[in-house]
Amino acid sequence: MSGMVGSPALRAGGPARVTGSYRYLGDLRLPGVLHAKLVTLDCARARIRSVDTAAARRVPGVAAVMTAADLPQPVPRFGPQYRDRPVLATGETKYHGEPVAAVAAETLDAAEEAARLVRVDYEERPAVSSLAAALAPGAPLVQDPALRPGDPLAGTNVLHEHCYGWGDVGSAASDLVVAGSYTFPMVTHFAIERHGFIAAPDGDGIRIWSTIQHPYWLQRIIAGLLNLPLAKVQVLAPDPGGGFGGKQHAKYEPLVALMALRCGRPVRLILTLEETFQAVRRNSAEVRVRTGFRSDGTITFREIEADYLLGAYADISDRVVGKGSYISCGPYRVPAARIVARSVLSHTPPSTAFRGFGTPQALWAAESNLDEAARELGIDPLELRLRNLPRGGEVFIPGDRPADGQWEQTVRKAAELAGWGTPLPAGHGRGISLGIKSGPTTGLSYATVRLLADGSVIMSAGTSDMGQGARTVYAQIVSDELGVPADRITLVMGDTSVVCYDQQTSASRSTVLMGNAVVAACREIQAKVAAMAARLHGVSASEVEVGQGTVRLPDREVPITEILKPGLGSLGGEVIGNGESRKEAVPGHPLSGNAAFYEFNCTAVEAKVDEGTGDVTVVRYATVSDVGKAINPLQVRGQDEGAAIQGLGHTLMEHYVLDESGRIRNLGAIDYRIPTSMDLPLDLRSGVVENADGPGPYGSKGMSEGALLAVAPAVAAAVTDATGAVIRDLPLTPERVWRALSQRPLRAPARQLAKEMQR
Amino acid sequence: MSRTTPIRLTVNGVPRRVAAEPQHTLLDLLRDDLGLTGTKECCLEGECGACTVSLDGRIVDACLVLAPEADGAEVTTIEGVAADGSLTPLQQSFLDCGAVQCGYCTPGQVMAARDLLARIPHPSVSQIQEAMAGNLCRCGCYRQITEAVVAASAAADR
Question: Which residues of chain A have pLDDT under 50?
């Protein structure tokens, strides 16, 4: 059954999705379940004087009204990086939407009615919801300094400062220095499946259903909070309906677990879309860039100061800041660099991982800065990038993985697809941009493959298939390695009680890290089958080779399945293969490990602008990623084009609108617009570069985020090329573009800005 | 509360009687009273299209129809599309074209595309994109969905 790898195999689990029979978390129905509703305040920061639940408790069908006072004291806190998030707000709410209480009732109607009747006596307090406000002298503190004992920054809203660098920035001789400051908005994941959580007492343990991407991390969080052994916490994670990073970490599972234990019954909480906006978002950012050049365009140094605006609790966002800023100089030879990135807390919803993991913010600035330099230098933006691009194998961040691809091929292919250098109609412009992201820095995945007596396979892996198609990829690998048709393979995922540990589903790791574990499990089966074949045919094991579904005996080849039945004998049974894939931490590395691979992408755009309205039309759009090997070209295309369209959201339309007190004024699908079918580029072209030079199975690399990284700078450069207007703030809404067009003659030249920044 | 309203309607060809809460929507009725969870829930304000169903031959967002308004109606949901157990050409095209990633919006997309093809058997690309603009896909499968509708339209001729 060789040939599945590299073929456009159809999505595993696809038929259940086109018929509506796949059961996502919200489709599960548990007998005796109670429905939960959160109680929130219509402001960001408030001191809670008292919570009166009497009226709420009188609503027929209400089983429990939980406030912070009903929780263990002190109120338990949790988080993947810092234990800073309380299960319910205690003393003070810190963002618009933070729950102060929760109701569990026989019906959702009763829970909603009771939630409305919970009377919270509170006093609104001044909130900080922007970088300027959070960093101002005397700004209200978001976090209690006692949560960070001994940290000199604990008395400020700066959670952490990340500093990286190499070479001597100060002594670099440059012919031109270009500087600019760029902003990236608050945006949200908007998975169409809203976050949902169910908890049920289970004997001396607990069972949790969640739309989570990292079931094993959630298992640790719940076990820690409830003081239970891991073995007594079963996390069930149906395939999420989209995650994009927003579903990586625990949100309301601890609350729902405590409610279920208190009620002695299952409790279910499905967030509304508005509540998901208040639960997850991307860090907004302001990034200041200075880059030195020789007159031929060679980069002499880069200096980057990035401030990322986190929410009230860190979630995984400080790691987002550290990892995203680390690679902010881009895929270039930079002899000297200084990078300072700050994680700044604010009274806004907790930001978290979101496709690109801090890199889109940094590259929006760093790539736009290159375009400003290209115009100053009179060098084509494509040429400027090629001139500074490392060759395959060349170190570009000292101490880290060298360039792991023939990146020039990717750049040239994207330029060709976009028609770079060909004549343009009047009023059209082009932009090109490079994206790079560090893959996972550590990892641990186990896979189990069971070859059953009839030659069918049950495979288990702890990855979450949230749309990236991990199930399909693993089925393709098993199919080729063991010679089993895909329709005879069952994949088991999403249950920590029967599926072995996987560290997490993030950083585009699953094809590479879990994929390698799957291959290893198959290889163990192959070795066992080789021993079987040797025994059956009276030859030595060294004379037998097993691979790609066949057993090669000294005199002939037979399918694995033909050895299996006699090999297993009269009792039948199965052949079990276990695979493990590790990426160890590297002591002393700034990210605690080097990148397993880089996601490298080139995006090239042709755009036109309606001068009367500021509306941007993407006429042609080319995206090319270096994927090493496309194990499934259909899914690779889906991920690349989908990432591009998602990136057009933060580039052209998406942003939270906050009022002065930190309320979000555009909660929900009507007031927060994401791309629709009408927002597709008129001509969308995607391509891949495959040199089988990645660390994953068959030379593959991770690829699900790359095509989002360079969207904004490429589109903005095309707008500038078309109109002459330079815009340093996203999104490029018609209003913002129209205003920039009207201010064109007044804009400050980049060179002058550089002087101002040097001060 | 709990003054229920008796509702009779036909869902996927089967007559059903439901005692519905008057404030509940057709979406609640389908998912919670009838257990037809193929129709998905997301924005609950008629913007995302995840709950698209056919009501008396026209597609609607089930979240915007009160359950009592569906009294006497003929409703088709995603569960009624491939009623004989095999996928329709449209459903198969969604798979063949890679138009299903996470799949959560897919039932609504299929219902909207099915309605379009019933009205316009051979839609142009711009007609498809306009007709499907009310069905959000955050995985960004819009081009693949368009291709699937084109492929299904061509398959209908064979």
Answer: 1, 746-752, 759
Alpha-carbon gap: B81 to the closest alpha carbon of chain A (Å)? 7
Which of A196, A165, A189 is CA-nearest to residue A27? A196
Q: Please tell me the predicted confidence (pLDDT) of residue A463.
A: 98
pLDDT reading at B22 higher than 70: yes
pLDDT (tens digit, 9 = 90+) per residue, B62-97?
Answer: 999 999 999 999 999 999 999 788 999 999 999 999
Topology of domain A443-583 in CATH is Aldehyde Oxidoreductase; domain 4 (3.30.365)
Question: Cβ contact (<8 Å) for A635 and B98?
Answer: yes
Gap between the Cα atoms of B135 and B116, Å rounded: 13
H or E element, residue A37:
strand A34-39
Instruction: Name the residue among A21, A24, A639 with its Cβ closest to that of B104.
Output: A24
Cβ B49 vs Cβ B111: under 8 Å: no
Q: Which residues on adjacent β-strands are paired with residue A103? A: A37, A65
- What would the DSSP string read from start to end of A598-620? EEEEEEEEEEEE-TTT--EEEEE
Nearest by CB to A467, from B95, B102, B134: name it: B102
d(CA A449, CA B113): 39
Residue A50 structure tokens: 């008292």
B41 chain-A contacts, CB cut-off 8 A = 26, 194, 270
Q: Select A284-440+589-758's CATH number: 2.30.42.10, 3.40.640.10, 1.10.10.60, 3.30.365.10.
A: 3.30.365.10
Q: Which helix (H) or strand (E) holds A286?
A: strand A284-293
Ramachandran region, residue A156 (left: φ > 0; alpha: ψ -120 to 50; beta: rest): beta
For chain A, give every residue range classified as CATH 3.30.365.10.
Answer: 284-440+589-758, 443-583
Give the pLDDT confidence of A324-346 residue by residue, as tens digits.
Answer: 999 999 999 999 999 999 999 99
CATH 1.10.150.120 segments of chain B: 89-155
SS3 A556: coil
CA–CA separation, A175 and A608 (whole Å)? 33
How confident is residue B2, by pLDDT bands cut at 50, 70 and 90? low
Report the share of chain B in percent with pLDDT over 90.
Answer: 94
Q: Does A540 touch chain B (CB under 8 A)?
A: no
Q: How far apart are CA A85 and CA A90, in angstroms?
A: 10
ipTM above 0.95, yes or no: yes
The answer to whether residues A279 and A268 touch, using CB atoms and an 8 Å cutoff, is: no
Answer whether A662's CB lies under 8 Å from A139's CB: no
